[in-house]
Amino acid sequence: xxxxxxxxxxxxxxxxxxxxxxxxxxxxxxxxxxxxxxxxxxxxxxxxxxxxxxxxxxxxxxxxxxxxxxxxxxxxxxxxxxxxxxxxxxxxxxxxxxxxxxxxxxxxxxxxxxxxxxxxxxxxxxxxxxxxxxxxxxxxxxxxxxxxxxxxxxxxxxxxxxxxxxxxxxxxxxxxxxxxxxxxxxxxxxxxxxxxxxxxxxxxxxxxxxxxxxxxxxxxxxxxxxxxxxxxxxxxxxxxxxxxxxxxxxxxxxxxxxxxxxxxxxxxxxxxxxxxxxxxxxxxxxxxxxxxxxxxxxxxxxxxxxxxxxxxxxxxxxxxxxxxxxxxxxxxxxxxxxxxxxxxxxxxxxxxxxxxxxxxxxxxxxxxxxxxxxxxxxxxxxxxxxxxxxxxxxxxxxxxxxxxxxxxxxxxxxxxxxxxxxxxxxxxxxxxxxxxxxxxxxxxxxx
Amino acid sequence: xxxxxxxxxxxxxxxxxxxxxxxxxxxxxxxxxxxxxxxxxxxxxxxxxxxxxxxxxxxxxxxxxxxxxxxxxxxxxxxxxxxxxxxxxxxxxxxxxxxxxxxxxxxxxxxxxxxxxxxxxxxxxxxxxxxxxxxxxxxxxxxxxxxxxxxxxxxxxxxxxxxxxxxxxxxxxxxxxxxxxxxxxxxxxxxxxx
Lengths: 447, 194
Fold this sequence. Notes:
The structure holds two protein chains of two kinds. By secondary structure, chain A is an alpha/beta fold. Chain A contains 19 helices and 16 strands. In chain A, the strands form five sheets. Chain A has a five-stranded parallel beta sheet, sandwiched between helices. In chain A, strands 7-10-13-6-14 form a five-stranded parallel beta sheet, with helices on one face. In chain A, strands 8-9 form a two-stranded antiparallel ribbon. In chain A, strand 3 (51-55), helix 3 and strand 4 form a beta-alpha-beta unit. Chain A starts with 5 loop residues before the first strand and ends in a 6-residue tail after the last helix. Helices cover 40% and strands 18% of the residues of chain B. Chain B has a five-stranded mixed beta sheet, with helices on both faces. A four-stranded mixed beta sheet of chain B has the order 3-4-6-7. The radius of gyration of chain B is 16 Å and the shape is globular. The relative contact order of chain B is 0.15. Chains A and B meet through helix 1 and helix 5 of A and strand 7 of B.
């Protein structure tokens, strides 16, 4: 039998309303009645209803009109149309307008019972879909990109907003911070989610190959082009194209990219006629592109084309509070993959992981956990299982010049004080003018 | 048996098989452990006849029964051999208002056509008892129950009704027990005051 529901009966005949309400109450449902479509809308504005039983023939606003308004304003509320004057046309009209069922008055008691069962099943299905959708969202948010720190929460908040628009996005972040995961999340939440997501690492492909990969070619365009091939701009066909390490592309490729972004047309290598392409571009870089622009190595016009929306992913050392959460996730992942039951970390191991600077960011942390799980003979990982990190840290502490050390120290203090020059100058015990000179000398820029 | 409550009045309206009335009273005592009192028959409810539908309005009959005073009874179960309807349904086997004072059962649609007369009568009496007990429980504020093997499971047709048992599931038994104990307390308090 059905779950308990909140039901409204909308009928201009008092006796019918009362009869319905009494029957629903006997079944344990919460039932209310409205004498007209206008009264029904007033009641709906006050409280939510799971189901409406609406008479088709009512003065003022008829049942079909009310159904239309309900579906528009309260799409989750289901409507059953009831009428004493049945015709196939009105039944079809009601179902087309979004009614879940159609009943002819008077009906057999089991017909009403069956309708309620049907509605209950639809309601359950809708809530299951809602639940699964919520779980999937949660998985995208927490299983793939993990973080509870403020900077990561800011990134999470930005993703759905960015996903709604079709603007180009530039994701900035050090290597291993999860730029591709953010790009995938944007795609997954966008209206293009059902279409392809293609990721290309521009830094890993030689320039000439990148051109043919992106634009495609015609047969005979160059030696070895034995058959025509579609490029990724064409293959992505309405989806999202993710160009990682965009800062690595050549000046010529920058011009080609700019043209594609401006015209949304490409011309295949060896072809004479351009074709229309539809894609959303998400690019990423670990470089400071603004700096590259000022140095003249990256086109300013392309930079502004790519940089409509910027998402900056903080390095792991800036969100150390996320490390235990990430470690737990990777432990679970690699324990499952290796069938080894390693699910604990000692306090000193966590401390070691939190103290380490992780130049390779999340990717390096993942590799470290994988390595420790594979080599561990115990269920609990201790700091000894991560001794290789100490060696890496020592390696990082190679002898450096005074100038390098000064630069790094000033940069660290500036970042610590969120680029508040007065505050940083106070920490460094120098005056602001000197600090400004040093920033200029070391070509330090605010991220 | 003394349930500590005033008895349930079972009253025929118009001409009804006497055995069926007695069977309903016996089943109320047997399954719900409530005392019963068979009342003298009331007049044929002509006032409830609906000319358009050629049926009797169950709601009108309940309203009429509730307007009468039955000081010796806690609740009333009317028994008729008439085809009943309520405005939304083509027909009903019985009717009661949640938490009301009077319920109604009709034996008109409960008689099986294909059985021999004694078997038919037995089945009809069993069905009538199920409907009467079900409607009576509504008077004690029990709702329809999701459990298939419970008297309070909603039966839309005869097939459903035949699958429904005469007893309540564990939860509905508890609800009824609670409702009756509240009723007893109120009755005792009322007796004290008088």
